[in-house]
Design a protein that fits this description.
alpha/beta, 3-stranded mixed beta sheet, 97 residues, Alpha-Beta Plaits, elongated
């Protein structure tokens, strides 16, 4: 496996820490983080964020600026791959705008 396909534990922990801090109140339940390539062939990090169902609608503003915050945490570790963040909510979850 090439270095572009590996993800260090410190990288995973840094991403998860930002997600937990920002999205904990929205039911953040974990994230799958893996190396991939974008449509141009550049190395990226795919971050699939999972949420537990909540009766309370989730405020969509919690995700505003999230990728910037994750990128700052990654940059501090020397990680240059761009994080592509995808959110996975329960089908019945209500989202407040």
């Amino acid at each position: 496996m090439s270095d572009e396909q590996t993800i260090s534990n410190s990288t995973k922990l840094a991403v998860e820490r930002v997600l937990r801090d920002r999205l904990g109140q929205a039911g953040f339940s974990g994230a799958d983080i893996r190396a991939d390539r974008d449509s141009d062939g550049d190395p990226i990090l795919l971050v699939d964020v999972k949420y537990a169902y909540s009766d309370k609608p989730i405020n969509s503003k919690l995700t505003y600026g999230l990728s910037t915050e994750v990128r700052k945490a990654l940059s501090a570790l020397g990680e240059t791959r761009f994080p592509h963040i995808r959110h996975h909510f329960d089908e019945q979850q209500k989202i407040a705008s």
